[in-house]
Amino acid sequence: MTVPPLPYPHPTDRHVSTRMRANPRRDTKPEIAVRSALHRRGLRFRKDHPVRVPGRTVRPDVVFTRQRVAVFIDGCFWHSCPIHGTTPRTNSDYWVPKLQRNVERDRTVDRLLADAGWTVIRAWEHEDVQAVVERVRSALTPDG
Question: Is 31 among the domain residues?
C-alpha cells in the first residue's frame, strides 16, 4: 500500500524552506496542550505509540491502548482544514496533490483503525482544548 513520493519541487525561498522543515512531526503546541489537559483530568495514555493494523503501522498523537481510542490532533495546513487550510501559490503542482494525499491517508487510517475495533477522534489544531478533552473522555466512558 506504499504510494510513490511526489517529485520534490525546487524551493523558491530558502526562508520558507527552512520554516517548513522546522515543523515537528510530533509534540506540537496543540498536541502538548491536549495531552496536558488530559493528564490534568487524570487520564493516562501513550503518546506517538505505534498501532499495528493490517497493512501498516499508525502513530496516533495520543493512544489509550486498553480502551482502543486513538486521538489525532491535525494541523490546519497539513491536513487541509476546511476553515483554515490554505493552498500555497508557489509550487502548487507539488502542494495540491501532497495535501490531497494527506487527507486520503487520514481517511484510510481512520477506516483501518475502525475496522480493527478502534475509536478514532480527530481534532483540528484550532479547536478548543477542553472540547477535545470532553470528546476523548466521552469516547473512553461507554455511558458518556
Answer: yes
